[in-house]
Specification:
This protein folds into four domains: 8-17 and 103-265, Rossmann fold, CATH 3.40.50.1000; 24-100, DNA polymerase, domain 1 (Orthogonal Bundle), CATH 1.10.150; 296-523, Aspartate Aminotransferase, domain 2 (3-Layer(aba) Sandwich), CATH 3.40.640; 525-622, Alpha-Beta Complex (Aspartate Aminotransferase, domain 1). Helix 1 crosses helix 5, helix 17 (382-391) packs parallel to helix 18 (413-422) and helix 23 (525-546) runs parallel beside helix 25 (607-622). The chain is of the alpha/beta class. Strand 12 and strand 13 form a beta hairpin. It has 25 helices and 20 strands. The longest helix is centred in the last third of the chain and has 22 residues, at 525-546. The chain binds pyridoxal-5'-phosphate. Pyridoxal-5'-phosphate is lined by residues 274-275, 327-329, 332, 354, 401, 405, 430, 432-433, 453.
Length: 623
């Protein structure tokens, strides 16, 4: 079902909607060059098809074989006056020919009717001049096809592959978003016109100029011959960058449906989750460049990312960031693998699922560890930790989660770190969902290493995590039993290798992170970002309070990152479905005892988004 996200389809004329195989202009080019004693082949005549016809003559004249042949026949180079002569001969031959080629191609009339029924407007562009078009438009209309708009190549500053004919159509049809427009054509220059206009570009194979066959010729070819010709056209359209390639116009409605599905996904949802998050257009856009891992420019970008990440929580003389392929858990696990010696006791303090995950990771890594657990809705008790560290002096390292995304509470990182550090312990922190949103001063608070990832409060994309650690830790031979999670080795690669990842680097994701860091600075860094998240959280508490929905973590321990609410009489599945259909994605609860749900307030989210969410939730609860 076409849903009206696509507002217009702009068709080419000859070879696309009329004139099967695009034969009308061909004789003209051949006759034109013949007037200068140069024989051109059908293939040469077709090659630039789709361009403004004078440009088409120029393109043929620029072919080396034609230039050579012209020199041989005329003992001089082809000049502008020759081109004009050839063009005039072309024009007069074309006039005789045009009306013979006004038949509408199969399935065009039905498809156009179907599109109009769906509310889609029909535009058109042509390599013909207006004068040529006037000779055929009425006849074609009589035959049953009449687009709403028609722009000819001589009515804009430049014809194909430039975008102006497309944009003039859009202006006349009153359409402003090129992503809601589809170009359909039968030549490489049509495909390029669609792409340069930033619209969707569709190539049609059968009856195209690129295929260059009449309907009769098509029928006479063996399956094998036709198959090979079709493959040739398909690969030409593909190489030109076509978004979709169809056999005939009957396939267009299905393509429109597919494009509309893609548009629907992009319009999409505000993710009110703990990551991946809603990200800025600029961050996603940064991924459009492809890079090689070895490339100097790419390595320089990597180095700048390492430096900027480190600076967020530490000074860069004593600390360094190590990027790691993979989600946040990879960085946490790497930290456990590398910084805790097998024979030295590690204390893992947990009050949520992420803390429990660290225990699992330490267990699998074969580390010697002990644990302390607190209720999911209470912050870690610093006094209890102090007592434990004093009574168990062989504990060498302490590890905990700063912002427990399970519940939404924030642990007293400063007090815990300074305490453990003052007792001579190594301090390792999972700062996944707090990094870049809460102040962390590794140096001052005695934090030796922390783990975080690109797709939380830095608002980058998932696929890259990192550890910021004291350089002395990174420089030591690591105790990792994993090759991939070896921070020491990764550190050497990244720093001694001048920004080189040991193994394939997620290049596009790194570019997105580079942009995310720039956006972070542009927003105003930690101060501005934490203030925005705080406003989001306040808006959420206010809105939910008005709906009588209670949060579960006491406000003194509550973070601005994500908030857990009591589900009460609400049904999560139906609520989720309703909110999603209204553009919001929320998260299930992770508390073990009380049924709950979570709403994240990080990412490219603003207080008005949160207000809208609460209104939507109110509507849901009313209905
Ligand atoms: C997101 C997150 C992680 C990492 O989880 P992944 O699914 O591996 O990205 C770890 N700890 C906390 C506190 C988190 O919020």
């Amino acid at each position: 079902m076409i849903k009206n996200r696509i507002e217009a389809v702009i068709f080419d004329w000859a070879g696309t909607t009329i004139d099967y195989g695009c034969f009308a202009p061909l004789c003209g080019f051949i006759e034109g060059f013949k007037s200068k004693n140069v024989e051109i082949t059908l293939e040469e005549a077709r090659k630039p098809m789709g361009m403004l016809k004078i440009d088409h003559v120029r393109a043929i004249s620029a072919m080396p074989r034609i230039q050579h042949e012209f020199m041989k026949q005329n003992s001089r180079d082809i000049c502008e006056a020759d081109i004009q002569d050839i063009y005039h001969r072309f024009e007069s031959t074309l006039t005789d020919n045009l009306l013979c080629y006004t038949d509408i191609k199969p399935k065009v009339i039905e498809t156009v009717a179907l599109l109009r029924e769906a509310g889609i407007k029909i535009g058109s562009t042509s390599g013909y001049t207006r004068a040529m078009m006037e000779q055929i438009a009425d006849k074609v209309a009589e035959n049953g096809y009449q687009p709403d708009t028609c722009v000819c190549a001589d009515e804009v500053p430049k014809g194909r592959p430039h975008p102006y004919m497309m944009w003039k159509n859009m202006a006349e049809l009153g359409i402003s978003d090129p992503r809601h427009v589809i170009k359909v054509g039968d030549t490489v220059s049509d495909i390029k016109e669609g792409l340069s206009a930033n619209t969707w570009s569709v190539g049609v194979i059968m009856g195209s100029s690129e295929l260059g066959l009449t309907e009769q010729q098509v029928q006479q070819l063996s399956d094998e011959q036709l198959g090979s010709e079709i493959r040739r056209v398909r690969s030409a359209f593909y190489a030109a960058g076509a978004d979709y390639i169809i056999m005939d116009m009957g396939e267009l409605p299905r393509v429109i449906e597919k494009i509309e599905e893609r548009l629907a996904q992009q319009e999409a949802h505000k993710l009110l989750t703990p990551g991946p998050l809603t990200t800025r257009q600029s961050v996603k856009h940064a991924m459009l460049a492809d890079h090689c891992t070895w490339d100097e420019d790419y390595k320089a970008i990597t180095r700048s990312v390492l430096r900027d990440i480190t600076e967020i929580s530490a000074n860069t003389d004593d600390f360094a960031a190590v990027l790691l392929q993979g989600s946040g858990s990879y960085a946490v696990e790497a930290m456990i693998q590398c910084f805790c010696r097998d024979d030295e006791k590690l204390l893992i303090i947990e009050n949520g699922a992420y803390g429990k995950r660290m225990i699992k990771q330490a267990e699998l890594a074969g580390k010697c560890f002990v644990t302390m657990s607190f209720d999911m809705c209470t912050a870690i008790d610093v006094n209890a930790v102090e007592a434990r560290l004093i009574s168990e002096p062989d504990i060498r390292a302490v590890m905990f989660v700063h912002s427990e995304t399970t519940s939404g509470l924030i642990n007293p990182i400063r007090e815990l770190s300074t305490l453990a550090h003052s007792l001579g312990k190594l301090v390792l922190v999972d700062a996944m969902s707090s990094f870049a949103a809460y102040e962390i001063d590794m140096e001052k608070w005695g934090i030796d290493a922390l783990a975080a990832s690109a797709n939380k409060c830095l608002e980058g994309l998932p696929g890259l995590s990192f550890v910021v650690a004291r350089k002395e830790l990174l420089e030591m031979e690591s105790s990792s039993k994993s090759l991939c999670l070896d921070l020491h080795d990764q550190y050497l690669g990244l720093y001694e290798g001048g920004g080189k990842f040991r193994f394939t680097s997620p290049t596009n994701i790194l570019l997105a992170l580079r942009q995310a860091l720039d956006d972070y600075r542009m927003e105003g860094g930690l101060t501005a970002r934490s203030a925005r998240y705080h406003c989001n959280h306040e808006a959420l508490m206010k809105g939910m309070g008005a709906l009588g929905i209670r949060s579960l973590v006491p406000e003194i321990w509550q973070s601005d990152i994500i908030t857990t609410f009591e589900l009460g009489a609400l049904n999560f599945e139906t609520m989720y479905g309703y909110l999603k259909s209204h553009g919001f994605v929320i998260y299930p609860g992770k508390l073990t005892d009380i049924p709950s749900f979570r709403i994240g307030t990080i990412g490219d989210i603003f207080p008005n988004d949160i207000e809208k969410l609460c209104e939507t939730l109110r509507d849901y609860m009313k209905g």
